[in-house]
DNA sequence: TATGAATGAGCCTTCATTCAT
DNA sequence: TATGAATGAAGGCTCATTCAT
């Protein structure tokens, strides 16, 4: 109910809700890790940017590593929900390929933090990801991609040698991920602003064309 | 036996040679930074793995950042020499494209350290690369790629809309870089060993096919 | 005997009391700075002489400089309370001058640490003192001195040209400060023990006589 | 001989003269020690500001302490020559007292570096001065002062109880030294510019008057 | 005499983590 | 749940000093 008895003392602190506290920490930690990497982010700073204190991080996550593992897991989940949720069945195979490519590219552009966290994880040799169960996401991706490609092959519009879902996904991931993750080095090397909307749009079209060219029978 | 004739008593290699010392530090630092990133690598560790002591790092590079800048610069140079040095003029345009793609892919596979250092630099927002003059490398890459594509268009074997050297280079870079740099996350996600020679060879062929498909008229 | 009844087992004093810890650090730091100056004192040493560890210095004072600033501020405060707290109104003007001179001299002799800290601060070009608000102490000194001198002039016992409170205070400060601060150089130069009670007493009388001579109408 | 055969190569470095090198080092070291104290000055910096290299300091002075000892000794010598060199015999006793006071005050104002070095030495508990033979300077000071005061007493213009040369010298030293050495703390405390020529002149007159008042019969 | 290279000890500072309440 | 105080181990950096030439 919405009303509160007058005698009830106003809640002194902002967060008396365990989940809310946990989430707040996780959100801030994600930003910090994305911005500075695992080794560059500081427990102190994460705590300072939260309404709670440093000890809560240990209370909820056990250690800095534990917090990072949670950050990583959420990053994967974010990606999953950004990439998933589309129904490609109503589309013609080649239209579906174009849509899938565009959506994947967009998911990366819209989640640079996730890209950065995955880079951090790679620099750390994937030490933390092995605790995560990837089977669901793996199946989702391969199923979605596989169905489209199979339909295309069956319809004679997709080359049979392009129908490997893993290679397909690896290609579109590479094209999307690199564009976001290597902004600074590649952009500077070629004096090319990879955050400019016009350049993003142009690259998006090119990525779609690359995928179509590879697949088209 | 206790004594050893003529065997030098582990002279702890007093270098007394500026260039040798500097190079030794730089080499070890490159490995450390590649393995652990800028923030993860320790000056102490780098010194310990060198014949010299911690101070020499400051003597020659001024600071940890200065050392990192030197590491980064050398990484760029390494890449340049790995990618350059090929003459594509004798080849037919499409053959040249295939060769260029294969060589670029190989350069990445053979230099995972450089890939990792560039990832570190990206995580650091490219803060150090701005001191480096990239104009020579930029021209080299765009000239090489541009000449091949122009010849292809002129010969009618390359699509005019695929002849942008920057997009072309961005594509082949993405495909090569991601394959090496995201080994751990992507590989684990799909239970796919991206360091296995067979998988590397297969992917190499696929990358070449992607580039050809996109360009072929 | 080996055991001692009821004697606490050297509990290494876990303070858990912010003010007590802060004060303990400040007290030790004052001694160290007085003994060795800002640059000569070591954070390590200060920590070692405290029940706490090095970090607490940074926890409470932020930096070595911050600690020094606190030491300096307390030194000024110590001086203020040592010099203040006297009521000269009941005394005849010349008696008041003698009392003021004697008290100021005594304040210096009793607080050689403060003298040394002020010397350190002067060697550092007064870099830290500018953050301190001196207005209260300034007014206190000038008011106290001014009132005495004015009464003396009004009573015809003090020369009008000696009634400048700033000059008066500068004179008595010089005479007192130098006697404590330059013990080692002046004392050695003239083989004169400036810490010997008899010499202190003699000099005290001389200082009073100097002030009276200058002021007497 | 003055001429040099044409075949003789021009001297490559600036200083091939031992004494010149030694003096150059000593001069720079004096400035550094005066500016930053013994602990604050750096061997590296002193060397950098000299035409020679760091090793020369050790070649000529053995250690940083040895260099400091030389600096201190030269500081004493500078003071001696600044204070000495006057002949007070031609003057009336009270005129001589005024002249002596003024000269001493001027010597301090003109040699703030020496003042600072003596402060450093005091902060170091006079650890280095004990190697210096002060007897000559001691005699000079006491003789000069003593003769003036004796003449004054004999002439009936100086009070007998003011005729102690040590006390006299201590007084004028205090007044002069403090004015230069405590510029920063005293000046800031009272918002009083102790480097301003007008204030210096006024204080000089006051110091003379103080000495005269004390002595005058 | 003179120099660039090298050293070892130590300095200020920071960090992840835990304790006591 | 929550917090301020405390810790121990390092981490980056500097300094006086010496070696080899």
Describe the structure.
4 copies of one chain form a homotetramer. The first copy, chain A, is built from 10 helices and no strands. Chain A is mostly helical and 217 residues long. Chain A has 2 domains: 11-70, Homeodomain-like (Arc Repressor Mutant, subunit A), CATH 1.10.10.60; 76-215, Orthogonal Bundle (Tetracycline Repressor, domain 2), CATH 1.10.357. In chain A, helix 1 (18-40) crosses helix 6 (112-123) and helix 5 runs antiparallel to helix 10. The termini of chain A are far apart. Chains in contact: A-B, C-D. Chain B binds a DNA duplex (21 and 21 nucleotides) through helix 3.
C-alpha geometry of chain A = elongated
Number of strands of chain A: 0
Q: Which assembly state applies to the chains in this document? A: homotetramer
CATH superfamily of the largest domain in chain A: Tetracycline Repressor, domain 2
Largest interface: A-B, 53 and 52 residues
Biggest sheet layout of chain A: none
Order of helices and strands of chain A: HHHHHHHHHH
Number of domains of chain A: 2
Average predicted confidence as pLDDT of chain A: 90
SS-derived structural category of chain A: mainly alpha
């Amino acid at each position: 109910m919405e009303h509160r008895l007058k005698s009830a003392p106003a809640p002194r602190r902002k967060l008396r809700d365990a989940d809310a506290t946990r989430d707040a920490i996780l959100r801030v930690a994600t930003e910090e890790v994305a911005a500075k990497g695992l080794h560059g982010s500081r427990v102190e700073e994460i705590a300072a940017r939260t309404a709670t204190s440093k000890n809560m991080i240990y209370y909820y996550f056990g250690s800095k590593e534990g917090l990072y593992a949670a950050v990583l897991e959420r990053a994967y989940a974010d990606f999953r929900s950004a990439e998933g949720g589309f129904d490609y069945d109503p589309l013609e195979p080649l239209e579906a390929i174009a849509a899938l490519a565009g959506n994947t590219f967009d998911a990366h552009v819209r989640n640079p933090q996730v890209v950065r966290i995955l880079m951090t994880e790679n620099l750390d040799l994937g030490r933390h990801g092995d605790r995560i169960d990837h089977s669901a996401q793996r199946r989702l991706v391969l199923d979605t991609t596989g169905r489209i490609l199979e339909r295309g092959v069956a319809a004679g519009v997709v080359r049979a040698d392009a129908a490997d879902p893993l290679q397909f996904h690896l290609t579109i991931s590479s094209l999307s991920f690199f564009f976001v993750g290597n902004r600074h080095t590649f952009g500077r090397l070629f004096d090319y602003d990879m955050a400019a909307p016009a350049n993003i749009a142009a690259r998006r079209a090119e990525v779609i064309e690359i995928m179509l060219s590879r697949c088209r029978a």
